[in-house]
Amino acid sequence: MHGRSSPESSIPSATFVVPVEPPADAPDRTLDRIVENLGPHALHVITAGGRLSDKVREVVVHGPGEPLPPADAGILLLTGSPSTQAADTVHGAAAAGYRAVVVKAFGDDLARLAHAADKARIALLTTPDEMAWRHLDALISSSKEPALSDATDRFAAIGLGDLFALANAIATSVGGAITIEDPTGRVIAYSNLPHQEIDEIRRLGILGRQTPDRPTNYEEYQAVLRSESPVYFESPAPEYASRMAIAVRAGTEALGLIWVLTDRPPVVARAERVLVDAARATTLHLLRARGQRDPERARRTEALRLLLDGAVAPRSAAAQLGIKPDTPSVVLVIAPVGDDVEPILAASRIVDLVTLYCEAWHSSALCVTDSGLVYALLPTRTTDEPSPRLLKLADDLAATIQRSGHLDVLVGIGSCAAGLADVPESRAMADRVLAVLTGRASRGEPTPRVASVEQVRTEVVLRMVANQGAAVEGQLLGPVRAIREHDQQHGTEYAESLLTYLSSFGDAVRAAEALNIHENTMRYRIRRIETMFDLSLEDGDQILATWLQLRLLRLID
């Protein structure tokens, strides 16, 4: 049980962090193994179609009206109401190489689809209506380990959403007292089995429904969130218990953490494996809890995730987001920064504040977290470049996060989208703007905390060229490669000098001032570079290519 740090805390802190070895590689995935691992709360078989023992590979999310891509032994997640799905969609999935189709019932009779699936010899499965397609995709894709039959059966018997019963079931299986927390340390549920002792840390956490402050809490959270397996924390003193924790994830998104006291009494011999299985079961419960808090917002959030990824048709997204397909909009990406920042944890801390700011901008604005970043979709009035009002909103948001959360962020503003079909491109441009800002910060250059694509378009374009391989080692011009190698071997600064000289359009005085050297020294270096590396600065094409590669290398090094 852990949380925020405080220098006033009188509770000792743990001193050892030992990641537990993950289990050995599992056998190839088959449909029946995936169904067994995830359990009936995630997947329910309507008809097997003779395919449950088949091996499966890729997972594809498919929206109504979209072309059906071919798949090699795939699982098709068919969004939308099953009443709108024609039988030929199921037949088409079987012909395209899919082994199973997953739908949400939404109270509809699935007999017609089941008959079509049987005829096409393809499995038909359902997932709960509140399960986000993106999360189901992540759960299936990460379902690689064999299930522990005793623990799996026990966890599957718990009613979905009954987190206290789940905590007791995990405590029974693992042998130690359990707490389930959200990523910020708020206690969501805990076990209360009489034979399992607790210590003062756990008692305070239960009473306050928030893990107590300790100096090492932040570092311990980072260790857990960065590990794919359980992490062990040795007891700092006899009166405090040792602990083990594992992150609960849906794909890359951290939903929470499970903590277990490991020595009051000692946990079972296979506690690590049981905890891994428990985390997988807890994922479904936390997703249900999130959806129950605000099911409409959860559905809109999932639609936005798919829209940002370009994985859903604009008209389908518009219906779920409650906005018109031709609504102009812009995407913002907010990134927590800092050497000691855990992005996933930080993003979960600020997403509510970002949402509050964005909904003040427009009632249909929506925010989501993804891999330690926060994305916001803001409807706008026009498709012109971001207005001063939008730039001020982003800057005020960054200032508020820094002031209230003591957390620095960078904000990238993407291109203006004429409609929802252009939102993935706006997101891509926002990511590129963020890459420019983080690149400048990593090089120690003056960096604004907010920028739009128009403000940094030149560097965005250069990075796009770099991503096409124009500055990879095998494509470097001979003189550029030779200059870099000479600088690395002899500690010279010929590459920087030449780039500065070319960027100054051959003005030795300006270049010398930029490098803080004498202009004669600058001219001497350029003559040496031409002689040593067989470089002609009279050839316009060679000058352009040399400058471009040196400039790109500065961006990506």
Helix and strand topology:
Blueprint: E1 17-19, H1 31-38, E2 44-47, E3 59-62, E4 74-78, H2 87-95, E5 98-103, H3 111-120, E6 123-126, H4 133-142, H5 149-156, H6 163-174, E7 178-181, E8 187-190, H7 200-208, H8 217-226, E9 231-233, E10 243-250, E11 253-261, H9 271-293, H10 295-308, H11 314-321, E12 329-337, H12 343-361, E13 366-370, E14 373-379, H13 388-405, E15 408-417, H14 423-442, E16 450-452, H15 457-470, H16 478-490, H17 494-503, H18 508-515, H19 519-532, H20 540-556
Parallel strand pairs: 3-4, 4-5, 5-6, 15-16
Antiparallel strand pairs: 1-9, 2-6, 7-8, 7-11, 9-10, 10-11, 12-14, 12-15, 13-14
Helix pairs in contact: 2-3, 5-9, 6-9, 9-10, 10-11, 12-13, 14-15, 15-20, 17-18, 17-19, 17-20, 18-19
Q: Can you walk through the features of this model?
A:
Helices cover 46% and strands 16% of the residues. With 557 residues, the protein is α+β, with helices and mostly antiparallel strands. The N terminus is likely disordered.
